[in-house]
Amino acid sequence: MRCEIITIGDEILIGQIVDTNSAWMAVELNKVGVDVVQITSISDQKGHILKALNEASTRAELVLITGGLGPTKDDVTKVCLCEFLNCKLVFNEEQFAVVERIFKSFGRTVSDINRKQAEVPEASVCLVNSQGTAPGMWFEKNNTVYVSMPGVPYEMKHLMQSQVLPRIHERFAMPVILHRTFCTQGVGESLLASWIEDWENNLPEHIKLAYLPSTGMVRLRLSARGTDENQLNLELKSLGDSLYAQIGKHIYAEGEKTLPEVIQEIMIARKSSLGTAESCTGGAIAAMLTAIPGASAYFQGSTVTYSNTLKMKVLGVSENSLKTFGAVSEAVVREMAEGLRKLYGVDYSISVSGIAGPDGGSEEKPVGTVWIGIGTPQGTFAKQFRFSTDRGRNIQMASLSALNYLRRILLGIED
Amino acid sequence: MRCEIITIGDEILIGQIVDTNSAWMAVELNKVGVDVVQITSISDQKGHILKALNEASTRAELVLITGGLGPTKDDVTKVCLCEFLNCKLVFNEEQFAVVERIFKSFGRTVSDINRKQAEVPEASVCLVNSQGTAPGMWFEKNNTVYVSMPGVPYEMKHLMQSQVLPRIHERFAMPVILHRTFCTQGVGESLLASWIEDWENNLPEHIKLAYLPSTGMVRLRLSARGTDENQLNLELKSLGDSLYAQIGKHIYAEGEKTLPEVIQEIMIARKSSLGTAESCTGGAIAAMLTAIPGASAYFQGSTVTYSNTLKMKVLGVSENSLKTFGAVSEAVVREMAEGLRKLYGVDYSISVSGIAGPDGGSEEKPVGTVWIGIGTPQGTFAKQFRFSTDRGRNIQMASLSALNYLRRILLGIED
User: Fold this and answer.
1) Element (H or E) spanning A354, and its range?
2) pLDDT value at residue A11
3) Considering just the CA atoms, what is the radius of gyration of chain B in Å?
4) pLDDT per residue over B1-39, tens digit each?
5) Which among A375, A377, A350 has a CA at the least distance from the CA of A276?
6) DSSP letter (8 states) at residue A107
7) Do the beta carbons of residue B84 and residue B144 sit within 8 Å?
8) In chain B, positions 202-261, which contact chain A (CB-CB < 8 Å)?
9) What is the distance between the alpha carbons of residues B280 and B261, in angstroms, rounded to a whole number?
């Protein structure tokens, strides 16, 4: 079943806010087998809204609309819906009770403008919004179902989960659609594609593969569609098994899991502790790890030593290594990893030294050259990487590569 | 002049990727006087792409397309463009040189799949992409200008800035639009609005004010539209002067400058050095500062001490302070700031200790409570902040607030 999402509001068209609602809705709709065929962001103008509502019905049986329901003048959606449905606005007691409760909680009384928030087109079903003043609306025209919701993310999410998704299930006959996503790090999209070309060419018609690349990572998503959930699950399992047989060592997780989350799980399961000694990543690895709630259960801390002086003074890197091999070298990241393990008393350490750019490169060590060290109770590992010419990408790729290098050492996965 | 943005790719429609490209493009287009009238996200299917290209020409004179240009099978955009333009693909030597260079830097040779990356429709102008393998394409049909670009954000941004925006200026008659953006930190949108209400109400008709809020910051953008550049500049200068008179101490920069860039400028100008001692921000401040090229000229390093043990062992925080006041306290951030200055031998230090959440809060110190210390040659400063209940927001707001606190101390700006 096909769905179009329409977001109404100039704030998206002028780039003032990024439309995160649509991505969230798309994920929830996909889970239940609804295909989002188009996402359309339009302005608050009546003519534009009416045109979009009509065009959407040529592409979809379900049209979800967010935004344009605030009390101020630039929000004209409800007026448009009345024109679209050829009906008038009617007052909804139940929504008004919510409006009154919300205003009371702020110690205010409801003004005339806000009283209008509780009105909905007569030809719609009012989806009472318990989290805000603007109700949702469910209506049909020419066999297309339309749902209008407020644009405030937590209000929209609450309405979707409590009312809209259950109603979709009642109203439509839904297919079964299952996804399986494999997260890889450190291998480019085209190299991956060349490795699994035969496997990909032999996928059955009802199972699709998508490559989802981002800096330093590629996610591979299989989507299976049918009627028999058990059968689809078996197919995805078998396809997953053969994918693991080919590129398993590059898959660090399935689904939405991130590398910092994977590291956290392994570390906590093993009751191990970790610290980082960072130079060119400048604290980015520590920041990634500590962005995850619960990181304090294993992450002890980090030392960012940008200067050679501090590498020596704080981490005990030898002047000789710095002079002989330079700060970006195997010897130095080994000494950083070992120094950090000793200083912080941690089981594992990550060390990074590289040339992030844009300056500082040489013929021998161009921008993007990064040495990564991993200190462990069994000894220290080190490896050289070559990333890009962009500082931000180099920091991101070095951080992810360091985490993945640690993961592979922890799990005993060879290069 | 009206523009539609079309993003191609199932990854947006199934919600695995949030479309941040469109917001960025909308901001850049707005700056030069192009109105984005619609943003349309569609799937990788040929029929859908062709329909979207045709429909967009009914709404806009300029259509910017991103995505769908990767080397793998799910990317069909270029084939569609050939059908749309009724022409064949031709090989572009200049783009192929880039493809070869990129592959060579990874020590690889170009496969047949990747050789195709350098092909463009014969009826298009190839916009050579120096940052990636997929070129941009500029073409016209029925007086509508279309531009296709890769969806990888930094490649798209580079193409937009280096080639697409200059070409838009050449091709269309554009109005004169001047912007002046004032960046503030630490004051909410509605409080700012109440302070400058009279000033805002007295803006002339052709000068608009926009509030651009993001986590911990609000930017105020004045946009003046007309024909006489000198006159508009004079008006913006005078309006800026009166804005500074009212809220000047909250403005840390103009334009796109970030707080880390402002700190870097001040530090380098004064030949001062800086280090950070971070707990709840987990290295985020160091990562923000070192993301800026040239940070090594003043930034020496950082210590992330997540555990109390390391706060004592590495930074010399007293056990007594930790026991008496807790890790999130004035005494502890003062000792962290002073300990770091001594340990790293830096002129200035930032220290942060707080409760990022979601757990760890108490009645007295709820989640979002953060103490920030600033060590200086003239003594140590400390201040308590109260942010939100969200971990990510708390880390971001604490980082920005710490940088702004340092800035105000450096410049002698009172609270």
Assistant:
1) strand A348-354
2) 84
3) 26
4) 999 999 998 889 988 889 999 999 999 998 898 999 999
5) A350
6) T
7) no
8) 210, 212
9) 22
B97 sits in which H/E element: helix B93-105
CA angle B304, B305, B310 (to 5 degrees): 140
Question: DSSP states of B66-80 as a string?
Answer: E---SSSTT--HHHH
Q: Which residues 109-168 of chain A have a CB within 8 Å of chain B? A: none
Q: Cα(B278)–Cα(B295) distance, rounded to whole angstroms?
A: 18
Q: Which residues of A touch B395 (CB under 8 A)?
A: 287, 290-291
The reply to whether omega before B358 is within 30° of 0 (cis) is yes
Distances (CA, A) of A72 to A76, A77, A84, A110, B205: 9, 11, 21, 14, 20
pTM of this structure: 0.82
- The interface predicted TM-score of the complex, written ipTM, equals 0.82
Residue A168, SS3 per DSSP: helix
Q: In which residue are the tokens 């009546």 written?
A: A46
Contact A402, A394 (CB under 8 A): no
| pLDDT < 70 stretches in chain A | 72-75
Query: What's the distance, Cα to Cα, between the start and end of chain B in Å?
Result: 45
Helix (H) or strand (E) holding A232: helix A229-247
Backbone angles phi, psi at B235, to 5 degrees: -65, -45
How far A351 CA lies from chain B's nearest CA (Å)? 14
Consecutive H or E run containing B144: strand B144-149
Q: Is B5 helix (H, G, I), strand (E, B) or coil?
A: strand
Q: Which of residues 268-327 of B touch A (CB under 8 A)?
A: 276, 278, 281-287, 289-291, 293-296, 299-307, 309-310, 313-314
Residues of chain B found within 8 Å of residue A280, distances taken between Cβ atoms: 290
CA distance, residue B353 to nearest chain A CA (Å): 13
Domains and CATH numbers, chain A: 2-171 (3.40.980.10), 176-254 (3.30.70.2860), 259-411 (3.90.950.20)
